[in-house]
Amino acid sequence: MNRREFIKTAGVVTLGLMLDGNLTEAKPNMKISAVKLYDGGYMMKSFACGGGLPEGSIKEEKLRSSLQNYVIDTGKEVILVDTGFPAEETIPVTKDSVITFGDKVKDYVDALKVAGYEPAQVSKILITHKHADHTGELRHFPNAKIYISRIEADDMKLTGDNVVRTDFTDGAYKNFNACQKIADGVYYIFAPGHTKGNSIVIAEDGDISYLIHGDVTYTDEALLENKLSVVFEDMSAARDTLNRVRAFIKENKTVYLSTHTPFGYENLDNKKIMELPDIEETPVVEEKADTPKATGTKWVCSVCGYEHFGDEPPEVCPRCKQPKSAFKKA
Length: 330
Ligand SMILES: [Fe+2]
Prior knowledge:
- The chain is α/β, with parallel strands linked by helices.
- 22% of the residues lie in helices and 25% in strands.
- The protein has helices at 3-19, 45-49, 108-114, 132-135, 150-156, 220-225, 235-251, 263-270, and strands at 31-44, 62-73, 78-81, 102-104, 122-126, 145-149, 163-166, 179-183, 186-190, 199-205, 208-212, 254-257, 298-301, 307-309, 327-329.
- It has a 7-stranded mixed beta sheet with strand order 4-1-2-3-5-6-7.
- The chain binds fe (ii) ion.
């Protein structure tokens, strides 16, 4: 191209941008990818769908299980949602396990590379909640801003200038009460229940909403059947959050991105818009508050987040049946 042609072409581009009302740059393309960590595991339906229900009321079956997180590339920056499970830890599997991850696919950083990103490219991390399978590899990102709800950050005793204790002060997002806008089209939303400071992430791409929800449900079966898992710190908040998530999906074209089921990456690959049947919520029995004495050492189950206080962890997790070795000192 000679100089005259170049000037002419540049002029057309500039005019195009001016007509577009955007003098700076064209709209970047958003890309969401799964960070695949484990696959081929199982979970029992009573674990995934039995929250607040009497024992034996769920017809038992084994459902598929996996572990993956997500990365949002807005075209301008790379944002992680959760950071996997610690590479050096393994989850014991026994005949009583009610959830397993399956076989390791990759450690977190290697899985991120498979998705096409180096840790140094990451500018922000959004943490859905404190559990070890969502926060396990934060140590690899000392220069990224870590957004985490104040409740979870305080519970984890997180320190560092890069930790952004989030109070969700940007007002409502659609039918959710409180959000923090993270980037154009990316919203970090308070959605308590699974844990007291739980949050979800919604990324808008055109008319599609990608809903990355941590553990609001462990499986898509629970979403479809409108049932809670047995893991929650506040059952009525968990019910309210699931109701809002379902209402959102009914009103907005939504791709539902789960952490613990292969439906998560399959829905993403197929850009599957979730369709929900109208199903009444199942009346639940308010769980008698399981309030262990908050004295002594705090032990946390790596699989389900159950908290136990005392000199020793329990022999078996009362919630997910993992053996003593699954407990870590908090
Ligand atoms: Fe969790």
